[in-house]
């Protein structure tokens, strides 16, 4: 084989490798934009449903697509395409309305046109109290973030969706609110950790449909104590094996 032939073969091999890398990156971009996006839980506002150190997949097609479905949220179109409404009780990743560079995750409790209020710690939707039953206590700081037993209440929304909430403080600032009128095209979000959640009762406000990123679907990994999942040597002691591939509801 001549020098020229060897050079051409080497050049062709590099070109094929580069082509494979580009195709893989494009495929990953399409999957992340249209299908699934990985998301890590940044705070304790959704405890006990979601814990810091949970890593989950968000389904991007669940509510259609908006500018925020694309990386960096380019302002190339407004509203949503192929959109569908979230269901009451869905756990949703969305862009923080005052600063869309920040991702939040909360539960949808109010739909457009709803009247939402909290009175003495109980959620009211359109003037009707959401059933709330005390189901016990959790005495596990990994779940509650506090070193004492915490009361757990189970709520059942009008569409039958049930989930557990924490009651860290009997008389917190969020236990009694004004009545909120959810405007058209917006949603009212609340964290399951009711006394430790910045949500639509406070700084989040009403969330525009355009800001929805997707629905939380499944936890694919979970590790305690804020450890990195890349630190494989910590898995035997810190990985929450019971949460792997746990459906979010």
UniProtKB/TrEMBL annotation:
Active site (catalytic residues): 45, 106
Enzyme Commission number(s): 3.4.21.89
GO molecular function terms listed in the Swiss-Prot or TrEMBL record: serine-type endopeptidase activity; signal peptidase activity
Membrane topology field: Single-pass type II membrane protein
Family indicated by similarity: Belongs to the peptidase S26 family.
NCBIfam families reported in the protein's UniProt record: sigpep_I_bact (TIGR02227)
Record protein name field: Signal peptidase I
Gene name as annotated: lepB
């Amino acid at each position: 084989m001549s020098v020229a032939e060897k050079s051409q073969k080497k050049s062709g091999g590099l070109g094929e490798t580069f082509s494979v890398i580009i195709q893989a990156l494009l495929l990953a971009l399409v999957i992340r934009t249209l299908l699934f996006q990985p998301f890590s839980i940044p705070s304790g506002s959704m405890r006990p449903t979601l814990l810091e150190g949970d890593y989950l997949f968000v389904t991007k097609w669940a509510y259609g697509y908006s500018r925020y479905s694309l990386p960096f949220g380019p302002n190339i179109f407004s509203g949503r395409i192929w959109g569908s409404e979230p269901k009451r009780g869905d756990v949703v990743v969305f862009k923080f309305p005052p600063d869309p560079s920040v991702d939040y995750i909360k539960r949808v409790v109010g739909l457009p046109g709803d009247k939402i209020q909290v009175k003495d710690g109980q959620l009211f939707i359109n003037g009707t109290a959401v059933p709330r039953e005390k189901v016990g206590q959790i005495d596990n700081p990994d779940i509650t973030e506090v070193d004492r037993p915490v009361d757990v209440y189970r709520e059942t929304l009008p569409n039958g969706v049930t989930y557990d909430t924490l009651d860290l403080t009997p008389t917190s600032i969020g236990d009694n609110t004004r009545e909120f009128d959810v405007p058209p095209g917006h949603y009212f979000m609340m964290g399951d950790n009711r006394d430790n959640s910045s949500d639509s009762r406070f700084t989040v406000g009403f969330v525009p449909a355009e800001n929805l990123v997707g629905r939380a679907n499944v936890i694919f990994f979970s590790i305690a104590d804020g450890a990195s999942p890349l630190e494989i040597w910590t898995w035997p002691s810190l990985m929450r094996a019971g949460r792997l591939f746990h459906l979010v509801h």
